[in-house]
């Protein structure tokens, strides 16, 4: 489900079925890395939308966690933990973080929930058809990872 | 006499202005009606069917096909791609929507190792028979929705609005 008024009614009626939050992690930079930050952000948004579509009955897609590229790892992890607490106290058993930012790879084990780190594919240069195909292929790899996360009864 | 004359002149002016104004208003409003309202009416009027697959490619095992069409919202046209599960039941084409009737996740054919001959929803393990009937004891309470279809020259055309089959 999406973070939208239209979906939130359904969410509130079927909360016990929606036990997973999806949060994109997006780094923002206006310096040299600007272009790649924008491309990564775009790619991750598309992937998140696709995941929402595939799993909308069990997954609530939250607004992304956006941070300046030079934010310290420690601050970020604190922030992520605060988020996990909020979700846990509202009955969410699973969090899926999705990002193309490689720095999360290093702290994967400190991250509550599942980290889906996806290498950024230059999807912005593809035509619609190829774009959709690339997304579908990506989803085929994501699906088993999400299923595995769900097999652990208590993820958080 | 003088008075009457004045009034009628004023009337003339009023009518003249109304006339021109009305004409101008029509000039502004008509295109708005044409561009704004008309497309919505048209979209309703013609429920175009979309060419999705060749009949020869169909088997009795459901396969996923892409259905691409343009959805006219009146103010903008959106490119839509949807997946449809299509198979043959005897001579009959069956086209099912992949949207789980429980809470809307996407179902796949045969992905549950214990039930290879059924549609499976990964979210809460909802299951459906080949013809879309929901399996009792799993969360969905109605069958998968079905697309209207027509076969023309060996091609399968589908309507764009799947409807409940109860
Ligand atoms: S959304 Fe398919 S079983 Fe719940």
UniProtKB/TrEMBL annotation, chain A:
InterPro entries linked: DUF2487
Protein name: DUF2487 family protein
From TrEMBL, chain B:
Similarity section: Belongs to the Rieske iron-sulfur protein family.
Pfam families: Rieske
Domain Rieske: 81-158
Name of the protein: Menaquinol:cytochrome c reductase iron-sulfur subunit
Origin superkingdom: Bacteria
Transmembrane segments: 12-33
Organism: Natribacillus halophilus
Keywords associated with the record: 2Fe-2S, Disulfide bond, Electron transport, Iron, Iron-sulfur, Membrane, Metal-binding, Oxidoreductase, Transmembrane, Transmembrane helix, Transport
A molecular-function term among this protein's GO annotations: metal ion binding
Described function: Component of the menaquinol:cytochrome c reductase complex. The Rieske protein is a high potential 2Fe-2S protein.
InterPro entries in the cross-refs: Rieske_2Fe-2S, Rieske_2Fe-2S_sf, Rieske_Fe-S_prot, TAT_signal
Subunit annotation: The main subunits of the menaquinol:cytochrome c complex are a Rieske-type iron-sulfur protein (QcrA), a cytochrome b (QcrB) and a cytochrome c (QcrC).
């Amino acid at each position: 489900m999406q973070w939208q008024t239209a979906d939130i009614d359904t969410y509130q009626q079927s909360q016990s079925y929606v036990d997973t939050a999806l949060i994109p992690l997006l780094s923002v930079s206006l310096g040299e890395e600007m272009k790649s930050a924008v491309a990564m952000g775009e790619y991750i948004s598309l992937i998140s939308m696709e995941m929402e579509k595939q799993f909308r009955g069990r997954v609530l897609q939250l607004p992304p966690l956006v941070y300046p590229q030079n934010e310290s790892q420690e601050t970020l992890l604190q922030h992520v933990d605060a988020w996990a607490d909020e979700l846990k106290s509202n009955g969410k058993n699973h969090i899926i973080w999705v990002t193309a930012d490689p720095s999360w790879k290093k702290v994967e084990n400190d991250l509550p929930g599942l980290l889906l780190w996806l290498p950024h594919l230059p999807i912005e240069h593809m035509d619609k058809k190829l774009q959709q195909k690339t997304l579908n292929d990506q989803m085929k790899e994501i699906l088993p990872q999400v299923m595995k996360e769900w097999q652990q009864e208590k993820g958080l | 006499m003088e008075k009457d004359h004045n009034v009628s002149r004023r009337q003339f002016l009023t009518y003249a202005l109304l006339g021109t104004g009305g004409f101008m208003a029509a000039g502004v409003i008509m295109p708005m009606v044409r561009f704004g309202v008309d497309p919505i009416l048209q979209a309703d009027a013609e429920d175009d069917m979309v060419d999705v697959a060749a009949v020869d490619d169909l088997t009795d095992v459901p396969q996923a096909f892409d259905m691409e069409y343009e959805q006219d919202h009146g103010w903008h046209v959106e490119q839509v791609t949807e997946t449809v599960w299509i198979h043959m039941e005897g001579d009959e084409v069956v086209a099912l929507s992949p949207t789980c009737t429980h809470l809307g996740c996407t179902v796949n054919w045969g992905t549950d190792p214990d039930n290879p001959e059924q549609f499976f929803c990964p979210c809460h393990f909802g299951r459906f028979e080949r013809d879309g009937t929901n399996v009792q004891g799993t969360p969905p309470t109605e069958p998968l929705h079905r697309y209207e279809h027509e076969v023309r020259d060996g091609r399968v055309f589908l309507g764009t609005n799947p409807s409940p089959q109860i």
